[in-house]
Amino acid sequence: MSDNEKTVVEDIDRTLYDFRYEESEEDFYKVSEGLTKDIVLTLSQEKNDPDWMREFRLKALDIYNNKKMTDWGASIEGLDMDNIVTYVKPKTQMSADWKDVPKDIKDTFEKLGIPQAERDALAGVGAQYDSELVYHNVKDEVAAQGVVYSDIETALRGPYADMIKEHFMKLVPPTDHKFAALHGAVWSGGSFVYVPPGVKVEIPLQSYFRLNAPGAGQFEHTLIIVDKGAYLHFIEGCSAPKYNVANLHAGCVEIFVGEEATVRYSTIENWSKNMYNLNTKRAKVAKNGKIEWVSGSFGSHVSYLYPMSVLDGENARSEFSSVTFAGAGQNLDTGCKVVHNAPNTSSYVNTRSISKADGISTFRSSVVINKNATGSKSATSCESLMLDKESQSDTIPAMDIRTSSADVGHEAKIGRISDEAVFYLQSRGISEEEARAMIVRGFASNVGKELPLEYAIEMNNLISLEMKGSIG
Amino acid sequence: MNININHMPVYTFGWLKMNYAEVKDFNTLGKSNKKIIPCDNLVSETDMDLSDIESGAGKEIELLKKESGSTPVSYRLSEGCTPKDVFKVEINPVKEGSFDEFDFVVEKGACLTVLMDIKDGDDLGAAGILTRINLLDEAKVNLIQVIRPGKNARIINDIGVSLGERACLNLSQLFLEGKESYQGFKSKLSGKKSEINVNIGYRVNSGELLDMNYIADQYGTKTVSEFNVLGVLKDEARKNFRGTIDFKRGCSKSEGAENESVLLIGEGMVNKTTPLILCTEEDVSGTHGASIGCLDENVMFYMKSRGLSEEGIYELLSRAKIRAIINTIPDEETRKRLEEEYPVI
Question: In the 3-class helix/strand/coil scheme, how is B166-199 assigned residue by residue?
C-alpha cells in the first residue's frame, strides 16, 4: 500500500458517470445559447404548448429578467446564462420500448443500470436525455390500478390537462426565486404522476435524468399528485459527464400529498463537477398525510437544494433524511425547509454532511411554525464531519415559531472523526483504515438505511467508502 | 435615522427576515444622562483608540456615534491589578436619544468587573451604547449588563471584545424590559486558550422587541466559547436570536457551544432563532442546541396540584430563568444585589 493511500480519503469514483459517447451536431436539435423571448417562443413552438403555457413561459421570463439573485449562498459567478443552451432535443421520439431508443442513448442508460433496475425493482421508468424524455414506461399491473405515469408534455394535452393546469407551478410559483422563474420560462421534459385514491404503489417509480450536452441546461418538471389514502415511492436519479464548461440544472418538483396519503421521494444526485445544480422541490401535505424526503447529494460544482414541506392539513407530517458529500472543488449548499401550517403537524429532520479536500458543505434549513399550527412538533438533528484541514463545513439553521403550544428541538454537532472511537475499534482488532471507513459509513447510514438496497449500494459506492488508507 | 444592524456573518433565506435588523427613526441627538462610579486602579485616558475592534451591531453603529458627536470614555487597568470595587455605569435613556461609548484596555493579568445598568429612561427615550474591551494576555473581565430602560424606551447596546492569550471574558446580561432592544456582541478570540462565557437571561413582554446578534470568532488554538441563553416570551413579544460560533482555520482543539431555551407564554409571539456554526478547522468541537416551547403538561399539572395558579407558575419560571443567569455572575456583591431585586418568589 502506498503512502498516499494511507493518508488520503479517495474522492468519489466518477468513472461510471463520466463516460460519454461521441455525438455529432446532427444527432440533436438545439436552440441558441442565452435566454431571450425568441428562444422561449421557439421552445414553446417546438413543444407545441397550449396557449396558456406559452403565456406562462413569457410571464416567467419577465419575472426572471426583473428578479435579483439572492444575497446568500454559494457563489454562482461561473454561471453565465448567455453561454447556456436551454433546450437540446435528441432527434428521436419518446418510446415505451428500449429497443426503439437510439443505440448510443440506450447504451448510456444501460451503463447506468436503468433498464436492469426497471426489470428488477421498479414499477415504471422515465428516462430523460438532455431536454427530452426518450423512454417512458409503466408496468401494466400498475397502470391497471389507474396510476398515471407519463411524460408531462403528453399529459398536458391528454385527459389530465386540466389537472396539470390547476397544479403546474402553483406550489413553486415563478416568483419564488430567480431560478424558479427561469424554470417556468424554459422547462422541458419531466414526469407526471397521478395515484388514485387508496392505491398503494408497492414498488417504486423512477425518473432518471441524464444531461449529456456540454454547456446545456436541464429544466425538467416533475408533478406528482397522490390522492387520498394512496402511497407512492418515487426515485429520482441524475448524472452527467464532466465538461470544462458550466452546465445548469434548474429542475422543479411539485408534490401534492392528499389526505392520509404518503409519498416517499428519494434522490441520489450525482451531477458532474461542472454542474450548477439549482433545483427546487416542494411538497404540500394534506390532513394526516406524510412526505418523506430521502436525499443523497454527491455531485455538482455548486448546489442549492432545500426540499420544502408545507404541512397544510391537521396531523400532516414530514421526514427529511439526507447526506451530503462535498469533495474537491465542490460547494454544496443543501438542507430543507418546513412550514407548519395546521394544528398538530410534525416534522423530523436528520442530516449528515461530510466535507474533504477543500470541499464546502453547508447545511441550511428553516422551520416555520405558524400561529395556527398549535400543538405542532419539530425536531432537527444535523451533524457534520470534516475529513481534513482544507475542508469547510457550516450549519445555518433558522427557526421561526409563532405559537406557544409548539414543541421545537434542534441540535447540531460539528467535528472530526473521534480518535477515541478509532482507538476502541483498533483495540477490537480492526485496522485503523477500516475503523475510519466504518465510522464514515455509519455516519451516512441515516440515508442508506432509508433507500432500497440497490440504491444504498450505489450510495456507498458514491461515497467511496472503500478507503484504501487512513484519513489524514 | 434608519440603520441596518446585527447582520449575521453569513446570510440565509431572505424571506425569513432574520439576516439583519432594520432600525427605524433611531436618533442620538440628545445629551447622555449617565452616572459613572469609578473604581480604584482604573485610569482614565484620552487618546485610546480601539476602533479596530469590531462590534456585533456592525459598521452602521458609527452613524449613531457621528450623529451624537460623542467621544469615548476610555479606561486602562494596569498589569496585574484587580480593583476592590466594581466599575459601575448607570444610563438613563433620554427622549432626544443619546450615544455613549466606553473603551477599556485591561492589561496582562489584570481583572476588572463592570456593571452597566440601563434603567429608568424617559418615556420614548432612546440610548445607543458601545462598549469595546481589549483584554491583553491573561486578563479577565466580568461584564454585567442589566437592561431595563423603561416600557417605552429603545436601546442599541453593542459590544466588541478582543482577547489575548488565556484572556477570559464573562458576560452576563439580563433583558427585563424595553420597547425595542437591539443587542450586538462580537468577540475575537485571537490568543491561545482565550475564553468567553456568555450567559443571557431575557423576559420579553407583550409588544416588546428583543433583537440579538452574538458572534465568537475563534482564531487561537484551544479557545473556548460558550453561550447559554434562557428566555421567556409573553403574548405578542418578538425576539430574534442570532448566535454564531466561527471556527477559523488554525484554531485547532477549540471548542464552542451555544444553547438557547425559550419558554413561550400566551399567544401571538414571534420567536426567531438562528444558531450558526461556521467551520474551516477540522480539529474542533462545536455544538448548538435549541429548545422552544411551552411548559410540559405534567410539570404544569404537578405545580397546579401544589396550589399555584397558571399565571403564578409562569411568573415563577420566568423569575427562575432570570435567577439562573444572576447565579452565573462572578461578582458576589452584584449578584446579591440583583438577587434581592429579583427574588424567585
Answer: CCEEEEEEEECCCCEEEEEEEEEECCCCCEEEEE
pLDDT at A91: 65
CB A334 within 8 A of CB A364: yes
Domain count, chain A: 1
For residue B293, which residues of chain A lie inside 8 Å, CB to CB? 401, 404-408
* Domain enclosing residue B56, as ranges: 3-341
- DSSP strand pairing (A346-355 vs A308-311): unpaired
Is A74 within 8 Å of chain B by CB?
A: no
Which domain does A46 fall in, by range?
14-417
Between B336 and B239, name the one with better pLDDT.
Answer: B239
Local confidence band at A28 (pLDDT 50, 70, 90 cut-offs): low
Q: Which of B227, B209, B200, B240 is nearest to B20 (CA)?
A: B240
Q: Do B268 and A371 touch (CB under 8 A)?
A: yes
A402 contacts on B by Cβ (under 8 Å): 268-271
CA distance A123 to chain B (A): 37
Contact A364 B249 (CB under 8 A): no
For residue A445, tell me if it sits in a domain. Answer: no
A341 falls within a domain: yes
The DSSP output letter for B94 is B
Q: Does B288 touch chain A (CB under 8 A)?
A: yes
Nearest beta carbon to residue B279 from set A392, A401, A408 = A392
Cα separation, A68 vs A59, whole angstroms = 16
CA distance B255 to chain A (A): 10
Contacts of B20 in chain A (CB under 8 A): none
Mean pLDDT in residue range B216-242 = 96
Q: Would you say residue A8 lies in a domain?
A: no
Query: For the segment A131-173, what is each residue's pLDDT rounded down to a tens digit?
Result: 777 777 878 888 899 999 998 888 988 899 999 999 999 999 9
Q: What are the tens digits of pLDDT across the range A342-364? A: 999 999 999 999 888 889 999 99
- How confident is the model over A219-244, as a mean pLDDT? 88
Contact flag B294-A402 (C-beta cutoff 8 Å): no
CA dihedral A409, B328, B21, B159 (to 10 degrees): -150
Whole-number Å distance between alpha carbons of A101 and A126: 12
Lowest mean pLDDT among A209-213, B3-7, B235-239: A209-213
Q: Is A42 on the interface with B (CB under 8 A)?
A: no
* C-alpha span between B136 and B156 (Å, rounded): 27
Report percent pLDDT > 70 for chain A: 86
A398–B284 CB contact, under 8 Å: no
Q: What is the ipTM of this complex?
A: 0.94
Say whether pLDDT at A466 is over 50: no
Which residues in chain B are contacts of A370 at CB distance < 8 A?
none
Domains: count for chain B? 1
Q: Is residue A444 part of a domain?
A: no
Quick check: A272 and A241 in contact, CB under 8 A?
A: yes
Measured torsion, CA atoms of residues A17, A22, A26, A32, in degrees rounded to the nearest 10: 50
pLDDT average, residue stretch B215-233: 97
Question: Which residues on A lie below 8 Å from B268 (Cβ)?
Answer: 371, 402
